[in-house]
Amino acid sequence: MAGSGNAHLRPRDEVLLRVEDLVVEFPAGRAGRTVSAVAGVSFDLRRGETLGIVGESGCGKSSAARALVQLPPPRSGSVLLDGQELTALRGEALRRTRRRLQMIFQDPISSLNPRRRVRDIVGEGPRVWQLPGDRVDEVLEAVGLDPGTAAERRPHEFSGGQCQRISIARALILEPEVVICDEPVSALDVSVQAQILNLLEDLKARYRLTLVFIAHDLAVVKNVSDRVMVMYLGKVCELAPGGDLISRPAHPYTRALIASIPSSARPAETLITGEPPSPVDPPSGCRFRTRCPRATDRCSLEEPQIRQIGEDHWLACHNPAPNH
């Protein structure tokens, strides 16, 4: 989204995290080919808001999230945290900045060291940073765990939901400004998902957090996000407040995601079939055109640039839905 494609970004004094023209690529095989995981993504994040990022598996949302904390650094683009360019940082300067950006991962059990006790897992960050005071009990209580019974146990003694609470405590104890939640509930039972989502909402208010919430399930994302960004094959399709996105979706892909929600009243013809193309060899023009019911010749020749179609509602599509 070069040039005018960045027009949807807000004035700098309104945002905590700004991402411009982010590109993430990975080598693919021995032939010198590359996976285009993230292809020119731009967005901003206001203090105290939750930005949801949604799309099918392989759309680049997790690659974008890891690039925010420079793990690994993007091939190109800008990541500004409170005006500081993270892509220019190296060594100790980058390590110190990462304390302000913490991540919660999809599989809570595998993200915890099975040999260590919970007290040591949660308290490792403060020890490394030589932070004053012992806040382990405080953050365990904040995530709904009893320090008296949980702190001396090991991860295998807990359920998946409890392990995710431990992971959240490990992130919180470093007092981050931004928490990136990378599919934090997709590995959990539905009943446990709701508990973790409610917990994140409570913690966001209590600790004044700013969240990036990533998921493949739009039904989950819309309930916790102030704004939602829809990605497909490394590109941004649509970006809007959650309620506006659900009530007036403009991109055919967004409409398809909504139609796949069991409680959705969207007509079945908005559903799409087939698998996304390979990110090693993405289609020309619009990357969604090979699965789009509204595709025309223009879609294969010209990549759609993101443009404003409503108040805080942005779209990259040549042939949006009729209500737009």
UniProtKB/TrEMBL annotation:
Q: Which InterPro entries match?
A: AAA+_ATPase, ABC_transp_ATP-bind, ABC_transporter-like_ATP-bd, ABC_transporter-like_CS, Oligopep_ABC_C, P-loop_NTPase
Q: Which SMART domains match?
A: AAA
Question: GO molecular-function annotation terms?
Answer: ATP binding; ATP hydrolysis activity
Q: Which SUPFAM superfamilies match?
A: P-loop containing nucleoside triphosphate hydrolases (SSF52540)
Q: Which Pfam families match?
A: ABC_tran, oligo_HPY
Taking every annotated instance into account, which residue ranges of this chain make up the domain ABC transporter? 17-258
Gene3D superfamilies documented for this protein:
P-loop containing nucleotide triphosphate hydrolases
Keyword Transport: yes or no?
Answer: yes
Q: Does the keyword Signal apply?
A: no
The UniProt entry, under PROSITE patterns, shows:
ABC_TRANSPORTER_1, ABC_TRANSPORTER_2
Q: Could you list this entry's UniProt keywords, alphabetically sorted.
A: ATP-binding, Nucleotide-binding, Transport
Task: Name a single GO biological process.
Answer: transmembrane transport
The family classification in the record reads:
Belongs to the ABC transporter superfamily.
Q: What is this protein called?
A: Peptide/nickel transport system ATP-binding protein
Phylogenetic placement of the source organism: Bacteria, Bacillati, Actinomycetota, Actinomycetes, Streptosporangiales
